[in-house]
Amino acid sequence: DALVESRPQLEILNNDVQCAHGSTIGEIDEDALFYLRSRGIDSAAARWLLTYAFVSEVLEQIPIPALRSQLEQQLATRVFSETGGKE
Questions:
Q1: Which residues on adjacent β-strands are paired with residue 32?
Q2: pLDDT averages per 10-residue partition of the chain, 87 residues
Q3: Is 9 helix (H, G, I), strand (E, B) or coil?
Q4: Residues 6, 23: contact at Cβ < 8 Å?
Q5: String of b and e for 45-63 (b: at least 16 CB within 10 Å)?
Q6: Residue 70 CB neighbours (<10 A)
Q7: For the whole model, what pTM was predicted?
Q8: Which among 6, 51, 44, 45 is positioned nearest to 28, based on CA atoms?
């Protein structure tokens, strides 16, 4: 059930070609999950916090507040739907 999203980039300047592919994959850090759970945070909320922390740097760079808010809401909906919204 793995999902990979890549964002190829191609930039051509004066016969100089640069190309980059960026992907990030991985699983939630079990130690971080344990830390949050040991402090009384339920599993779904802990997973949401860790996922949000992972993408927050990208979301913070979005200059349009309404768009940023909409993407945050979509992320929350997706994370909770995948975890069943419960432990």
A1: none
A2: 70 66 72 93 86 82 92 80 58
A3: strand
A4: yes
A5: bbbbebbeeeeeeeeeeee
A6: 12
A7: 0.53
A8: 51
